[in-house]
Amino acid sequence: MSHPLFDISGRTALVTGSSRGIGLALARGLAEAGCTVVLNGRDTSRLAKAAAEIEGTGTVHTAAFDVTDGPSVAAGIAEVEERVGPLDILVNNAGMQLRAPLLEFADADWHRILNTNLTSAFLVGREAARRMTDRGHGKIVNICSLQSEVVRPGIAPYAATKGALKMLTKGMCADWGPHGVQVNGLGPGYIETELTGPLVDDPEFSAWVRRRTPAGRWGRTEDLVGGVLFLASPAADFVSGQILYVDGGMTSVL
Ligand code: NAP
Fold first, then answer.
1. DSSP labels, 211-224
2. Which of 12, 79, 177, 245 makes a 20 to 30 Å CA pair with 232?
3. What is the pLDDT of residue 2?
């Protein structure tokens, strides 16, 4: 029998950007833990496919909206709460990567990556937290990154968004903690997904990741599930403003 501190069955969870990759794996984990799960993304057919994939594990709903657009977010969260129920858990996971030397990085790309990785967490977080703080409880997990701490050439804008997301997490903790809402971050290391596809396919880079990671391998999306379940559970009721790195040890070693 599992410890009651880790019991999150019956909770309702929204995971943004969960039509594939890390978001879908986290949504599956939350559904397996007994949560009612709401999948989000922009593409309705991809969302329907993702929902069908994990339907056997629990109660799954979908809500298509663009997390970078304020009015769509406000309407999306209101509609989810009306149709599915009050949100207990929000995972701000939607994100993107754009790799280019900083000298060549275009203005439009800068704004796009900032909107997708950072502004989205503010917009969705604020909208969900308005309701959670009224109710006096809630858990928010922002998906940060190894690159909230360290960077390599060609991904400065991405690292800037993830570093800022770490501080937004601490700021949300400061503002919403007094109202019973715990906000934490989860920082994945190198995980095999569509986003990292070009790196996984590069034998030299892939070998570097394996050498550089104490665990000696790329991460799998399932590796991240335990951390999110913990941060969403009563076991983390006094944990707030922290970033839990799940990176096979990479941020700890030179
Ligand atoms: P992914 O495979 O590219 O999936 C991204 C998801 O976000 C998709 O479901 C996508 O669906 C959705 N999305 C993108 N823009 C959106 C928008 N404006 N509105 C709503 N949904 C949107 O990425 P991933 O590798 O799973 O990464 C997920 C998160 O983990 C990101 O925040 C990423 O930065 C972070 N992360 C990943 C790694 C890694 O190694 N993979 C490491 C550290 C951190 P649609 O395109 O259909 O909207």
1. HHSTT-S-B-GGGG
2. 79
3. 87
Rounded distance between C-alpha atoms, residue 127 and residue 123, angstroms: 6
159 lines ligand 1 (CB under 6 A): no
pLDDT digits (tens, 9 = 90+) for 15-41: 999 999 999 999 999 999 999 999 999
Query: Tell me, what's the pLDDT at 1?
Result: 72
CA gap 133, 159 in Å, rounded: 30
Tell the residue number behind the tokens 């057919």, with chain if given.
45
Closest C-alpha to ligand 1, atom 3: 195
Would you say the CB of residue 237 lies under 6 angstroms from ligand 1? no
| 42 Cα nearest atom in ligand 1 | 48
Cα(162)–Cα(150) distance, integer angstroms:
10
pLDDT lower than 70: segments of the chain = none
Q: What is the pLDDT of residue 235?
A: 98
Distance 207 CA to ligand 1 centre (A): 24
Architecture of the domain defined by 4-191+220-252: 3-Layer(aba) Sandwich (3.40)
Catalytic positions: 158
Q: Is 116 left (phi over 0), alpha (psi -120 to 50) or beta?
A: alpha
Give me ligand 1 centre to Cα 95, in Å: 4
User: Which pLDDT score is estimated for 220?
Assistant: 98
Domain ranges of the chain: 4-191+220-252
